[in-house]
Amino acid sequence: GSDAVLATLGLGSCVAVALFDPERVIGGMAHILLPSRSLSRATDNPGRFPQTALPLLLDQMLALGADRRGLTARLVGGASMFANLVPAGSMQMGDRNVIAVREVLNQLSIPIVGEEVGGTFGRSVWFTVGTGQVMVRSAGRREQAL
Fold first, then answer.
1. Is-contact 43 22, C-beta < 8 A?
2. How far apart are CA 128 and CA 20, in angstroms?
3. Considering only CA atoms, which of 12, 8, 58, 53 is closest in space to residue 32?
4. pLDDT tens track for 104-124
5. What is the residue-averaged pLDDT of the chain?
6. Element (H, E) at 29
7. Residue 1 pLDDT > 80, yes or no?
8. C or N terminus of the chain, fewer CB within 10 Å?
9. What is the pLDDT of residues 64-81, one digit of tens each?
10. Beta-sheet strands, E only, within 67-120
11. How far apart are CA 44 and CA 27, in angstroms?
12. For position 40, what pLDDT does the model report?
């Protein structure tokens, strides 16, 4: 229902993607673990990868009556939690997740209307489906609405 709140706590390099149709008040959230299926030994969960999770979420929302022309996306996460452990010049997993999510959303023609990504700190996110509001909280930082 419209009073539903979807939450993801303690996001590090993962990216939460909130999709929302404000006209029909239909929303959903994907939790992207890795930028590509090829990086995982466990490939049986399509919800972990942007190339499979986002089309799946889109299909489920369309089945509920969402209009894809009105959909928007908000991204949260993609932090570089262990920047000092990665060789200089190589790309962090969080950055790779954000780039992969942006590519898939672009392919699906879903505009990104808000994001709180990158940095070196974890985040938690609450998506209130009835209003479309996405709240982001991080330790020691001001709560932010997307």
1. no
2. 10
3. 53
4. 999 999 999 999 999 999 999
5. 91
6. strand 26-32
7. no
8. N
9. 999 999 999 999 999 987
10. 72-77, 112-117
11. 24
12. 64
Contacts of 91 (CB under 8 A, 6+ apart): none
Residue 120's nearest CA partner among 80, 89, 93 is 80
| pTM of the predicted structure, to 2 decimals | 0.91
Residue 47, Cβ neighbours under 10 Å: how many? 13
Here the tokens at position 11 are 């996001």
Give the least confident one: 3-17, 55-69, 88-102.
88-102
Q: Which residues of 91-128 are buried (b: 16+ CB within 10 A; e: fewer)?
A: ebbbbbbbebbbebbeeeebeeeebbbebeebbbbbbb
Rounded distance between C-alpha atoms, residue 56 and residue 94, angstroms: 22
Beta strands across the sheet bearing 112-117:
26-32, 15-21, 72-77, 112-117
Q: Are 124 and 7 in contact (CB under 8 A)?
A: yes
> Hey, what are 13's tokens?
């390099």
Provide the annotated active-site residues. Answer: 14
Residue spans of alpha helices (H) in 20-124 = 50-63, 93-107
Residues of the chain above pLDDT 70, percent:
92
